[in-house]
Sequence to fold (159 residues):
Amino acid sequence: MFILTLITVTVFLSGCVGSEISSIDQLTTKINQNMKSGDSYYNQAANSVNKFLYDIALGQCNSAASQFDQAKSSSQEALIHAQDSQNQVYINYLQLTISELNAKINATNELQLAIPLYQANDTRTANTHVTLANTYMKNSTDYEKQRQIIVNQNPDKFK
Fold:
């Protein structure tokens, strides 16, 4: 009787872990799409700022922020599934993803702060915010590289 119960529990738990991994896989697709869209909007905003198209740049920053926020929300949800599955590879990967998204959100916020300053001809303060935005984006690429290392070291977990 004990062996049958143990087998039942093991099958039940492996089904839960499989379900958690399936949920992570579904969320990862959404995360990647939102992150890619956010990056595109952010780059468009930076280009618009360089062309002095400030109102357009603000709209693009808002779109970037929205996409990054959605990606972060999905990443936090996926992290809960990873923690439930107790899979340290996924946990580390998703923690880095959230750190990357926080950096991108901070960069977007700094760019948003710079735009009205450029409009008011306060280029010195605006440039300070742009420098911070660039620093945050550099940090985001560092997190992205760390995520890629995890992917390369665990090809069976990342398709």
Remarks:
- Residues 17 and 85 are 5 Å apart (CA to CA).
